[in-house]
Amino acid sequence: MLIRRPRGWEIPERDATPEALWTRRRTLGAGLGAIAGGLLGGRNAIAQEDPSAGMYPAMRNMRYRVDREISAENDATTFNNFYEFGTSKTIWRAAEKMPIRPWQVRIEGMVEQPRTVDFDDILKAMTLEERVYRFRCVEAWAMTVPWSGFSLKQFVEWCKPTSSAKYVVMQTFQNPSVATGQRASWYPWPYTEGLTIDEATNELAFIATGLYGKPIPRQNGAPLRLVTPWKYGFKGVKSIVRFNFTDQRPKTFWEQLQASEYGFWANVNPKVSHPRWSQASEEVVGTGKRVPTQLFNGYADYVADLYTNRQDERLWA
Ligand code: MTE
User: Fold this and answer.
1) Structure pTM?
2) Which domains are assigned to the chain?
3) Taking a C-beta distance cutoff of 8 angstroms, is the pair 98, 238 a contact?
4) Percent of the chain's residues with pLDDT above 90
5) CA–CA separation, 4 and 258 (whole Å)
6) CA 244 to chain centre
7) φ, ψ (nearest 5 deg) of residue 95
8) What is the Cβ-side half-sphere exposure of residue 234, based on CA atoms within 13 angstroms?
9) End-to-end C-alpha distance for the chain, whole angstroms
10) Whose CA is nearest to atom 10 of ligand 1?
11) Alpha-carbon distance 265 to 244, whole Å?
12) CB distance 201 to ligand 1 below 6 Å
C-alpha cells in the first residue's frame, strides 16, 4: 500500500495560497541568488572545465518565440527540483558533487542495435541549437529558459527504434554515494519518465545539454535532460543514462508515488486543477507576477493533435 509522504513541492493547503508565502519564497530566492552571484566565478570555472564548453553558445532557433522575458540565470540555476540531492529548492551546491565525465548512455530495448555510447560522442553526432521555451512546474511557478541541445526527434532517429517501439523510457543515474537523496528508500529510484514515440518525435521535444549559452549545470540535469515545454516540469527527467524503447507504457517516478496527482501525460491545462491547488494561474519566477496559465503551456498549435484520439485518458496531471 502506498504510504502518503509529503514532498518538497507539496506545501500544505493552508500555505498554498497566501501571496506572502510567494513573496517570502521569492525574497529567499533573491537572497540565494545574491549569494550564488558571489560564487559565479566558481560555477563558471566548472563550466570551463567541461570538454563540451567550446560547443556553446549554439545558434538560437527563432521558430520558437516566447512573449515573456527570459528568466534570470541565477533564478534558473539556484531554484531547482532535483530530489536525488534533496527535497528543497536549493540543491545546487549539493549537485556540484555529481561527476559528469565520463558519462555513458545506454540505448536499449526495441532498437536495431542496443549500444552504450559516450555522451560526448552523442554531442558530436547531433546538431546543436538554442531554443527559448516557457517552462511550467506543476507547483504553479514558471520560468522562460534558453536551453541548448538537440531535438529528441533527431536523437530517436539516431537510436534506430524498430516499428514495435511505442514508448521511449528515460532514466536518471543511480549513485546514492553522491546523490544522497537516493538513500531515501521510499522513493522509486531511479527517476523514470517516458513519452510515446509520437510525443518524442514531436518537433518541440528537446534534449537539453546547455543552458544560457553554456554547458548545462549539474543542478539543471547535466549532462543531458529532457525538455517537453507543453507538459509539467516533472516530465523533464535530468541526468539521463538510459533510453529504453519499448511497447509497454512505463510507470513513472511520480506516478508510482502518487498516481492520482501526477499522471503519465501531465499536459498543462489551466482548467484542470491539481487535487490540492488551482492550475489557473502561475507565478513567473523573479517578477512577482501571476499570469494566466495557457493550455499546453501555450504550445497547443504544436501538440494538440497528439491527443485527439486519446480523449478518454487522463491527459492532464
Ligand atoms: N529529474 C530528476 N532526475 N529528479 C528530479 O527530482 N525534478 C523534476 C524535473 N526533473 C526532477 C527531475 C521537476 S519536479 C521539475 S519541476 C524539473 O525537473 C525542474 O527542473 P529545473 O530544476 O531545471 O528547473
Assistant:
1) 0.87
2) 13-307 (3.90.420.10)
3) no
4) 84
5) 8
6) 18
7) -70, -20
8) 25
9) 21
10) 237
11) 18
12) no
